From TrEMBL:
InterPro entries: AAA+_ATPase (IPR003593), ABC_SmlMolc_Importer (IPR050093), ABC_transporter-like_ATP-bd (IPR003439), ABC_transporter-like_CS (IPR017871), Mo/tungstate-bd_C_term_dom (IPR008995), P-loop_NTPase (IPR027417), Transp-assoc_OB_typ2 (IPR013611). The gene is potA_6. It is an enzyme of class 3 (hydrolase). The keyword Plastid does not apply. GO terms for molecular function: ATP binding; ATP hydrolysis activity; transmembrane transporter activity. The keyword Transport applies. This is Spermidine/putrescine import ATP-binding protein PotA. It comes from Pseudooceanicola marinus. SUPFAM superfamilies: MOP-like, P-loop containing nucleoside triphosphate hydrolases. One of its GO terms (biological process) is quaternary ammonium group transport. GO terms for cellular component: ATP-binding cassette (ABC) transporter complex. Residues 4-234 form the ABC transporter domain.
């Protein structure tokens, strides 16, 4: 379909930089999720691509053509908003047809395109209904159909499922992913939900303070975060402070070896990388504070002797109770200093990956 290129974008509001100097390439047919905390600039980036905000610096190119100064209605983009932005006094079909009527297409072609778009989102029999007669999920499908009926080169979605309940969100994002793959349309998707980004994206771009913290595939983003911020923002992560001395961490429970300079570090360990067994660790006592049974697994909240807390994921058959003393081992540990990853230690394979 199309390639999107953002070159050194900059945008400020009231003298404060919201986007500092952002560059990003989105490949033909790729679905990229912009992920970050509130105020990170992800929606501002999306609105600049759609033409609803104008960058003060930089350029936006679609298939090599500079569209930075092109108004929204003339850009080859389709935007889906969180609020749906549908007209309640119109029928579903009229909502979807609105942009086509502005283009003054023949009525027969408009009917055909509207029918195809509604079929695509599973609302083929809903064309004559009013928007207020639809559920929230159906309204969002109409908004997606209205964007797709214009056959945009780039599909833009600004947290489109944020107002829906969890089960409906999961179902709609699966449907959206199927539609996106079927059409092969280049897509930029803004979300604050980590699970949504991990489930949808070909690539995740984590924003922080208007800058790209890391851009990577979902599996790499989760398993190999490059900064301490990404490690703590994507999924659940345990952080334990200690010092490196002579190539070994001085933490009593996790004295991992790594070829890094002496000094303070943070050990980062995913809950699923911890193995819990009954008994006492040699270096420091650890006790179960709380057990939560999720059906597929147990999540243990464990208090260490020095007061630190860690979370560990265990099989649902694990026989652990609050107050029980346990022994901890870690299969994978990352070491961070000053926000930067220094090394990654896989204790089972006895190997250290330097960064």
């Amino acid at each position: 379909m199309a390639q999107l290129t953002l070159k050194n974008l900059g945008k400020s509001f009231d003298g404060t930089d919201v986007i500092a100097d952002l560059s990003l390439d989105v490949a033909d047919g790729e679905l990229v999720c912009l992920l970050g905390p509130s105020g990170s600039g992800k929606s501002t980036v999306l609105r600049m691509v759609g033409g609803f905000e104008t960058p003060e610096r930089g350029a936006i190119l679609i298939d090599g053509e500079d569209v930075t100064e092109v108004p929204p209605e003339k850009r080859p983009t389709g935007m889906v908003f969180q609020s749906h932005a549908l007209w309640s006094h119109m029928t579903v079909a009229d909502n979807v047809a609105f942009g086509l009527k502005l283009r003054r297409l023949p009525k027969a072609e408009i009917r055909r395109k509207v029918t195809e778009a509604l079929d695509l989102v599973g609302l083929g029999d809903f064309g004559n209904r009013r928007v207020w007669q639809l559920s929230g999920g159906q309204q969002q499908r109409v908004a997606i159909a209205r964007a797709l009926v214009l056959e945009p080169k780039i599909l833009l979605l600004d947290e489109p499922f944020a107002s829906l309940d969890q089960h409906l969100r999961e179902r709609l994002r699966e449907e959206l992913r199927d539609i996106q793959r079927r059409l092969g349309i280049t897509t930029l998707f803004v979300t604050h939900g980590q699970d949504e980004a991990l489930a949808l994206a070909d690539r995740i771009v984590v924003l922080r303070g208007g800058e790209i913290e890391q851009a990577a595939s979902p599996d790499r983003m989760y398993r190999a975060p490059e900064t301490r911020f990404v490690a703590g923002f994507i999924g659940s992560m345990n952080f334990l402070a200690c010092d490196m001395r002579g190539g070994r961490a001085d933490h009593p429970l996790f004295p991992v070896a790594a070829v890094v300079p002496d000094g303070p570090v943070e050990l980062a360990i995913r809950p699923e990388a911890l193995t819990v067994s009954p008994g006492r660790s040699a270096g420091m006592s650890a006790r179960v504070h709380r057990k939560t049974d999720y059906g597929t697994h147990l999540l243990l909240d464990i208090v260490l002797e020095d007061g630190a807390r860690v979370k560990a994921m265990c099989p649902p058959s694990g026989a652990f109770e609050a107050g029980q003393e346990v022994r901890l081992t870690a299969s994978q540990v990352a070491l961070f200093r000053d926000e930067v990853k220094l090394a990654e230690v896989r204790t089972e394979a006895r190997e250290v990956a330097h960064v």
